[in-house]
Each structure stands twice: as C-alpha cells, then as structure tokens.
Amino acid sequence: MIRVLVTGAGGMLGGDLVAALRGEPGFSVVGLRRDELDLREAAAVRAAVAGADVVVNTAAWTDVDGAEADEAAATAVNGTAVAVLAGACADRGARLIQISTDYVLPGSGQTGPWPADAPTGPLNAYGRSKLVGELATRELLPDTGYVVRTAWLYGAHGRNFLSTMLALAQTRPTLSVVDDQHGQPTWTVELARQLIGLAAAAVAGRAPAGIYHGTAAGETTWHGFARAIFAATGLDPDRITPVTSAQFPRPAMRPAYSVLAHEMWAGTGVPVQPDWQHQLRQALAAGVGRPVGEPTRV
User: Fold this and answer.
1) Given the residues 126, 154, 212, 257, the one annotated as active site
2) pLDDT in tens, 169-219
3) What percent of the chain is modeled with pLDDT above 90?
C-alpha cells in the first residue's frame, strides 16, 4: 500500500487527485486543504508528512497578476514553504512530487516543445516564485524529489478558461481571445492519473528524480482552444475573434510559447497524456464547465 499525502486538496487539481486516489487499488490517501495545513509551519508539516510514502504538493499561490504586486507573499507560498515541505520529506524519507509551471521558462527562442532540461528564465513574479520551489525540491531531495510542470489547467472545481468561455457564451454575442500564446490545455483528471502513475513508478524505482512535464499532447492557442470549446458544445466557433496579447495588457507578462516536451516519461511505464482535443471531449462528457443542474450536451 502506497501512502500518499496531498496538500492543497481543496483546489482544482488537488480535489481531482484525492478523488482519483481514493478509487485506485494499492493506494491510501490523506488530503489536506489550505486551512488544514499551513506549509509555512514547519512542525505542522513534519507531523503531516510522517507516515507518507509520497507527498504531492498541489498547494500554491496561483494569482499570476496578483504576484506582481506582492512577489514576497507569492514566494513565501510557492518557494519558501516548498523548502519547508522538502526538508520534512527528507527527514521522514518521503518522496515529494512538487507541482510547478511552464512559467518558469522564458517562453521565447524555442522552435519546438521545451525539454525538461531547458534553461529557465521566468518572465514574471509568479514564475520566479515557482522556480524557487523547484530549486528547493531538487536541492533538498536530489534522489527523491520530482518536479512536474504543468500548464493551462482546467477542471470541475474552481474557475478556469473552459468554464469562463461557456459562461461568457451565454451573455456575449462575440468574444475576443488571444491567438499569439501557444500551449497545451490540460484536464486536471488526466494530470491526476499521470501523477498517480508517477507516484507508483517512483516507489518502484522506475522513475528517476528530476523534472517531468505533465501536459496534454499536441498544442494550440487560447483562440484555438476557445473555438474548440464552442464547436464541441454546439456553439458557433466563428463567434471567437482572434486578437494579440498587446491588445489585452495584463500586469504579468505571459510566455508566448509554453509547449512542453514529454521525453522524461520514457522508461517509467507512465503514459504520456492524450491529445488536448481528446481531453476536452472527455472533460465535457464528464460535465466539466457545465453549470450545476444543467444536462450534458456534447
């Protein structure tokens, strides 16, 4: 029995991961929400980690634009607290899977998907804060620390691009969506399945410590994703108008190219995630993005 602790269990990814683990043979899980475990409290973290074989840290400061105004606070959660958790894992002999982001990469100067060993170069405070967490994991847990970078997440719990597009479709005849940012829309359920596979592979010794990319196969733009959402739900995709990022300035700069390569999964026995379009169809069939009580139509 592999004992897993999931921090940030009240979030979009954490919630799906806990639910998936509860139905997975050979695993037991404890999920702790943010109000149940403050990762900045070392004693509480050590107590929570005790008895766990694998810790998956999905807790994070996720307000990208808000981090520009308070980078210290974002780093306290995404960086310093991760060091506390990694230290506790080192003391207790637990493996740590730290969830990170494409935003640690510069997002330009790349002609194909970013490999796991690509040089980092965050464009914004959020990316810098998450990079601190990556470095702490690798430094404190060189043999038992796993960094899983993901991007463009959507799921049933919490606000995300899919639910936002479907909500706006009810009130606006047309929508303007940026078409110069490239990435991989990723369903949290698929990422949760991959994380479970990584946990099993790590315990079995099939997966070396290091950086992995946990995103859907394929690539698109936010505009392409929006059109696919509309088409898959019976809406007219021509209602989506392409615009540039410069037309929608934000406090935090976004990377233009966030497509991640998946070479590290080879040899682990853990499959690469399905294509983003397949994931979208499956998520919609499961009711993701649908208001509570509304019948599914895909």
Assistant:
1) 126
2) 999 999 999 999 999 999 999 999 999 999 999 999 999 999 999 999 999
3) 90
Domains detected in the chain: 2-159+185-218+259-274 (3.40.50.720)
Taking the whole predicted model, whether its pTM rises above 0.70 is answered as yes
Closest CA to 163 of 263, 17, 8, 291: 291
**Is residue 126 annotated as a catalytic residue, yes or no?**
yes
Q: Which helix (H) or strand (E) holds 284?
A: helix 276-285
3-state SS assignment for residue 126: helix
**Residue corresponding to tokens 């979030």:** 11
| Residue 174 backbone phi and psi in degrees, to 5 | -135, 155
End-to-end CA distance of the chain: 38
Which alpha helices (DSSP H) does 11-159 contain, by range?
Answer: 12-22, 42-49, 64-69, 71-75, 81-92, 125-140
71-85 tens-digit pLDDT: 999 999 999 999 999
- Quick one: tokens of 223? 């505009």
How far apart CA 114 and CA 119 sit, in angstroms, is: 9
**Tokens 């733009």, residue?**
221
